[in-house]
Fold this protein.
Amino acid sequence: MRFTVLSHAGLLVESDQGKKLICDPWIIGSCYWRSWWNYPPVRRELIDGLKPDAIYLTHIHWDHFHSPSLARFDKDTPIIVPKGNYSRCKDDLTGLGFTNVTELRHGEPFALDADFRLTSYQFGIFLDSAALVECNGVKLLNLNDSKHMGPTLGQIVKRHQPIDFVFRSHSSANSRLSYEIVDDPTEEVDDMDRYIQDFARTAQASGARYAIPFASNHCHLHRDSWPFNEVIQDPSMVREYFERHGIDQPTAQVMVSGDTWDSQAGFAIEPTDCFTNKTQRLLEYRQGQQAKLDAFYDQEDRARVNLRVVEKYFRGLARKLPWLLKWRLRNTWYTYVLYCEQKPKYIFRINVSKGRVEELPLDTDLSDNQAHPLQIHTSAFIFLRSIGYRIFSHMSIGKRVFYKVTKAAKGKMEELNLIFNLEEYDMLPLWRNLKPRSLQTWCLRWREILLYLLLVRDKLLHRRLDFGKYLRPAPAPGPFACDKTAQLAAPSAQR
């Protein structure tokens, strides 16, 4: 068998019999409103002519569920998605014209061939998943963005050990870095070291032979998000962490777009300076994409917001909120500052609990933290798209939204983002969580419920969460699964 890293989170697995599986094919263009780009860029010859026998999508975030990339494939291509409490993955694929979509329950396998199958393992309240791929005796655990640990990771390891390769993300893809605490600018909003630490702990707990830093191989080219390139933790940093801490089991192997491993020949790693000469390569990358970026800037600057559209959306959202959230946010107002041409074009004051929207004048004093302790700065274009596509939860992932909050009010902003996630994952109104589909999902994922109870216990007793206790190193693996140990560590394996 053979696997190839296609892109940021794109993985191609090919069996000895010629069957092909692709996971999360974001292989062209950008995502999150021109913010995220594959890094290093994906070569056209790598993807031209790709015709998989099946595609697996781990979750609905656009760097994994990328409709322009999916449009390159035949509409009858089998596409596999996790079956969680909601059907949005399948519904959106159907809306894109795909006719052969299969939902897999937690722990359910899908056979591509007699010796080639994939098993889906879900994780997270807002549906994510891992794929355990078994192909010609080789086992790949593609954790991607899922944060399996404790009993949930234990289920996978116990059922499929020994695991040969584990793939996992290792950098920030959440809202934390988008926060500015206006009355305490020195407060740390994120612990950047923990991402690589969690990668290492998870890799060790999986018992895999090789750990591949994965699903964080991107960069930011949009003018708004360009500064975030400074905080991306690239795969070379993961390898350095393993070396610095003396971690030799599993072995950290850097693989980027185009790199492969073959059960006969081992690793084939092309030399690159994409991490050692990153600043120059990023400048060249942005220059090469400048025409696309300028066209998008122009499109964003032409966006116009209709107050009635905003009012209709937030009235509908308010009707779905449970009583407790309505009560907690009854006197809370969020200030949306929407930009065109890099300056404020609209300012809306919104009470989510009551569904009320007020448009404020552009000369409003936004430096008054008492009057506006909860500010959300983004483009008018993104705001409209978030309403139209029910995708507010994607805004902070793309690093195209900036929260300016007081220290005391930060929790209220996090509650708003929780509401958006609940609504967009079809968990509002709350009765939706009692539907048979949702109950079946959580019954199969009882280990995850147990993990949450353990974490709540830890928080109550120790006032902190120690994920490390749920990521203990697994025993050293036995013989290599496909019985080709000599080929695993080929001379070309080092970058």
